[in-house]
Amino acid sequence: IGGQPAIIIRWYENGDASQYLRLNPRASARRYVLDIIEGIKSLHTHNPPIAHGDLKASNILVDDDGRFLLSDLGLAHAVNGTAAATTNVGGSFRFMAPELLPIIIDDDTQSSEPTLASDIWSLGCTIAEILTSEKPYYARHSHSQVVVSIVNGILPYTEANFINDFTEDGIAGSKDIWQVLKKCWEMDPALRPTI
C-alpha cells in the first residue's frame, strides 16, 4: 500500500466471538466450543506443534457460516520442547497460564514462551468465557488483582458459573464442563490435558 509492504487479511462482518455471542445469545455454544477445540487441535498437532499464545474470545473471528476461526497468531510459535525465556511479555493476563506470568529480574521483565500446556489453560478460560459471557477473574478489576489471584492458585471462574441450567445439557452438563475446565487450570502444566 503506497509502496510499503502490508499484511492483508479477510474481513469478517460477524466480528469476534464475544461480539457475535452478545448479538446472538441463543446461538449454540457447543458448536462454537468444538470449533475452538478443533482450531487448537490443528495447531497442536501440526509438525512442529504450534502454540497460539493469546487465545481468548476476542481473538476468534466468526465467518459467514457462523463458524469460529482462530485469529491473532502474533504470539504463536513452533514449540521445540525447550523452555526458553523471552523479553516479550505478550498475551492477556486474564487468560494467561501461571507459568507465563512475567517475572521482574533487575528491572528486566521476562516471561516464558507460550507452550501447548499454556494454550490449554487459555482454552479453558476461553470456553468458560463463551459459556458464561464473563471474562476470567471477572470480579477482579485490576491486572495486579488478577496476577495475585493466579499466583495464589485461585481459579479463573467458580463452580457456581457452571452449575446452572443455561447450558444445552442442563445441570449435569454443567458439572461435566466444570470438571474438564478444572483440569485445564491445573497449576502444574504437566497435569493439564492435551488435545
UniProtKB/TrEMBL annotation:
It catalyses: L-seryl-[protein] + ATP = O-phospho-L-seryl-[protein] + ADP + H(+); L-threonyl-[protein] + ATP = O-phospho-L-threonyl-[protein] + ADP + H(+). One of its GO terms (cellular component) is cytoplasm. PROSITE patterns: PROTEIN_KINASE_DOM, PROTEIN_KINASE_ST. Its EC number is 2.7.11.1. Keywords: ATP-binding, Kinase, Nucleotide-binding, Serine/threonine-protein kinase, Transferase. It is an enzyme of class 2 (transferase). Gene3D superfamilies: Transferase(Phosphotransferase) domain 1 (1.10.510.10). Pfam families: Pkinase (PF00069). One of its GO terms (molecular function) is protein serine/threonine kinase activity. Residues 1-195 form the Protein kinase domain. The keyword Acetylation does not apply. Transmembrane segments: none annotated. This is non-specific serine/threonine protein kinase.
